[in-house]
Amino acid sequence: MSNESRPVPRRESPWGVTGENHPEPKAHRCNDRVEDVIQACFEGNPFKTVPGPFKLFWQCMRSKPGEEPTESFTYLDLDPPKRAAKPE
């Protein structure tokens, strides 16, 4: 995926809002693939809908950062990830 990441929702904890000394959380690079697998679970027969998105999720998890699969998402309305051009 690109170096840009979607913001992770923050919530107020019982100990107060996190201050400056706490870094902002970043979503995992394969987070959108997991969401696609979860959505596939609710789109009919899971034995037919889950294998495709799960295969792409597994490829994403086993890939190195920047080498994630660029195939489009099956159920999410997101643009497919783009691979950054390698400097030659």
Describe the fold and architecture:
There is one protein chain. By secondary structure, this protein is an all-alpha fold. The protein has 3 helices and no strands. It has helices at about 30-40, 45-50, 50-60. Helix 1 runs antiparallel to helix 3. The protein is flat.
How do you describe this structure in short?
By secondary structure, the protein is an all-alpha fold.
Radius of gyration, rounded? 16 Å
Query: What's the helix count?
Result: 3
Shape annotation: flat
The N- and C-terminal alpha carbons lie at a distance of 20 Å
Protein name: Hexokinase-1
Organism: Flemingia macrophylla
Task: Write the topology of this structure.
Elements (H helix, E strand, L loop, with lengths): L30 H10 L5 H4 L1 H12 L26
Descriptive labels:
single chain, 88 residues, mainly alpha, 3 helices, Hexokinase-1
